[in-house]
Amino acid sequence: MKPGADLSLDISGIAYGGAGIARHEGRVVFVPFTIPGETVNARVTAVHRSWVKAEVTDITRPSPDRVQPPCPWFGRCGGCAYQHMAYPRQLEAKTHQVAEALRRIGKFSDPPVEPARPSPLEYGYRNRITVHVEPPVVGFRGTDPRRLVGVDRCLLADETVNAALGHLRSKKRLRPGPATLRSHPELAGFRQVNDQAADILAVVVEEAAGDGGLLIDAYCGAGFFAKRLRGRFTNVIGIDWDSRGVEAARADAAPGEEYRAGDAAELLPDALEGSPDAVVLLDPPAQGIAQAVIDSLLAARPERLVYVSCDPATLARDLSRLASAYRLARAVPVDMFPQTASIETVCVLERMDDKIP
After folding, report:
1. Residue 118's pLDDT is what?
2. CB 239 within 8 A of CB 218
3. What is the crossing angle of helices 87-104 and 312-322, to 10°?
4. How confident is the model at residue 353 (pLDDT cuts 50, 70, 90)?
């Protein structure tokens, strides 16, 4: 098989990242912008030892879940993966992808994955976007990342952000490079991009955390979760490497609420000392948590862990490393990023007391 070869394929699944999955002559074929159950004609674009990438040339049997993408740049812009798919089917795909990652990578035979919670808004939900500027073009990296796709608005962004995009495009002199456009540029620290879905995420985290004596928010940012949970716990300790976010969190800290700036791997052992009944909230970046953090958790054995992840693969990897002392009780995907391949997941891990030495 060589690039340029034409294939007829039956799409059987969706990989994390959004491409449909088919098989041909013993190889997995990844075909973007397809839906399980479809039969398509596709042209091979890249060949590797065990897998192939192809692009659709014709859909001979479309899925009933196929819809007309509303964005004129869909398929060329690299931001969205699922505009061709009805929203309920997107949620099913993301639920399945979380479960598959926990099975394949985490080695959980029957992961307790709940149906993905939908975003209240399917479009117009983003409170910030990052565009790239190569004068005179302002836009997003394409499905071919070597190309920049110029856009005059983003259907995922809210109106304030799109107004900022219009203002940027109207400038006579453009500075090359990335530019982040925000609906609330005055807010410090990390902020979820989808305010409405973030409220749903917060409710799930509140359910998962419960209440108790000590909550340790190990990647607290400006205190998005800690501020919501502080009334449920006697003491709250927030940790984050971003000193600006920590300062913002300290600004309205209540009694018993403390924020420490630094690396979670270095600060977590001291925060955990003498608190076996603590609840630890983990909301790390996409690369997951460092082995030193895993080691600290396994040494201290806090009662419950709540892990919020934006990457199913690193989530599954980290949970497998914690499985010697913790039982995976719940996994709840929350769709923070409709139309895209990204998935946010909340997992609850309960200490197995019989594993304490």
Report:
1. 98
2. yes
3. 40
4. confident
What value, to the nearest 5°, has the Cα angle with vertex 202 and ends 201 and 204?
65
Where does the pLDDT of residue 357 fall: very low under 50, low under 70, confident under 90, or very high at 90 and above?
very low
The Cα–Cα gap between 84 and 215 comes to 42
For residue 354, report the phi and psi dihedrals to the nearest 5 degrees: -70, -10
* Stated pTM of the model: 0.91
Alpha helices in 49-111 (DSSP H): 87-104
**Is residue 247 within a helix (H) or strand (E), and if so which, with residue range?**
helix 243-251
Domains of the chain: 6-66 (2.40.50.140), 97-118+191-355 (3.40.50.150), 128-182 (no CATH)
Structure tokens at 22: 């088919």
Per-residue model confidence as pLDDT tens digits over 149-207: 999 999 999 999 999 999 999 998 999 999 999 998 766 556 789 999 999 999 999 99
- State how far the Cα of 310 lies from the Cα of 104, in Å rounded to an integer: 17
Among 151, 149, 152, 34, residue whose Cα is nearest residue 82 = 34
Closest among 150, 148, 142 to 75, alpha carbons compared? 142
Closest CA relative to residue 85, chosen from 156, 10, 34, 32? 34
